[in-house]
């Protein structure tokens, strides 16, 4: 799944489509997602037309085939009635419907030029935390230095909005400001990366951190690292390539 980039160097489109399916199946296999939940995309331009490849709506990953993946233009995906929330109006040239969360993927690519892949999942621990008032207000705070893997001193939680809506995409973009991952209230997580591998590793790390944080809270109130220490950690993480997540020491 390391083929994913954002400059036309992803190889053949069929390979990118297959890699998306592999990433979704890996999410489920690693316990970061389940069933038909979640979705994934890669930035994919067709000549001069900027666009993305995204998983389709309501199709189990074990039944998904490369031809089921939907290509959307970054411009067409937000035009006409679809911009108002009519997901059914957004189809590709073959009549396939993209995931109901296509808008989040489209908007991330429009506002985050460094993003080449986006994963959305419903991991059990991160989602449980995103259903708690404290999780919604504080996300995952700096109880562990690896929180910095998402790009900041904490991992925020996006405010709740109905799935597939422009409001949800706006809330997700806000929570992702200066970050590569966020929780989503009453919903799940989003992770972006310079490759599918990077986004998948980050999604897995966010779920692991949420699990550790919930375990720590069962024993008491976790101590938090101060902002100065988190900034030192962030500076150290900056030495890693943008398509790599630092390994826990």
What are the defining features of this structure?
disordered N terminus, 7-stranded mixed β-sheet, 12% strand, 249 residues, alpha+beta, L-fuculose-1-phosphate Aldolase, globular
Summarize the structure.
The chain is built from seven helices and seven strands; from the N terminus they run H-E-E-E-H-E-H-H-E-H-E-E-H-H. It is α+β, with helices and mostly antiparallel strands and 249 residues long. A seven-stranded mixed sheet has the order 3-2-1-4-7-6-5, with helices on both faces.
**Which word captures the global form?**
globular
The CATH architecture name reads 3-Layer(aba) Sandwich
Spatial strand sequence of the major β-sheet: 3-2-1-4-7-6-5
Helix content: 25-40%
Helix count equals: 7
How many discrete domains? 1
Order of helices and strands: HEEEHEHHEHEEHH
The overall pLDDT, averaged over residues, is 88
Determine Rg (CA atoms, Å). Answer: 17 Å
Q: Classify the fold: give the CATH topology.
A: L-fuculose-1-phosphate Aldolase
Q: What is the CA–CA distance across the termini?
A: 25 Å
Question: Which structural class do the helices and strands define?
Answer: alpha+beta
Beta-strand residue percentage: 5-15%
The tally of strands reads: 7
Uncertain segments = 1-10, 77-89
Largest sheet: 7 strands, mixed
- So, the CATH homologous superfamily? Class II aldolase/adducin N-terminal domain
